[in-house]
């Protein structure tokens, strides 16, 4: 009995250390969120103070009222623009990537292998390399300061296509053969049999695409030259210039901009992990 009693604390030691490490890492990751919320609720005097306080003495939502009352930046319109662009980009990217990935997985040929290789190759090309030619094309089409210019050029995702291809390559072929015996064509099999069983990977790709679209800055900055087409990230940059930086508005705007992304991630975090696991990516 004494030997067993001695083993208990020894066995619990690594587990306690692991939990402490995870706690420290969680605090490190949560620290930026705390700083944003703390500064968003602070008064201008507290932000300008040289001494640091862990929480404002008088938390206030004046910065929030000022944020939405500013007609020069029009932050509410920017939030709406970001929501529309992110949702459209997410839905269309998932749809296009799912069809492309299914085709690459189920139509084996030299052409499909070549397309898959070129798709993976584009992952190695820095995004900034394609900015100028893409911008020239969008400008020639007259899509500057338009919803089409913000959404259409960024719909293709090599990463999403590859994830879907990996998932569909491991999808049971027997289910599709059973649907074909029942008279279902390729499209009906895809929409009625394959996609309903691909909810995890669709959610994972959707979350990743939504996060990237919401946080995108450089492309909306180039295309949304009209203030009516500013996204939230571009609107936040309006509070910083070479002459002044409105620190209070930057932090409050950042806190508001974080909320939609945080909600999406918390709601779909399980599907995100499961989708990546089922895609066959190690």
UniProtKB/TrEMBL annotation:
Quick one: a GO cellular component term? plasma membrane
- Per the UniProt record, the source organism is Microlunatus flavus
Signal peptide segment: none
Q: InterPro entries from the xrefs?
A: MetI-like, MetI-like_sf
Q: What is a biological process (GO) this protein takes part in?
A: transmembrane transport
Any keyword Electron transport? no
ATP-binding among keywords: no
Instruction: Please state which protein family the record places this protein in.
Output: Belongs to the binding-protein-dependent transport system permease family.
| Protein's name in the database | Multiple sugar transport system permease protein
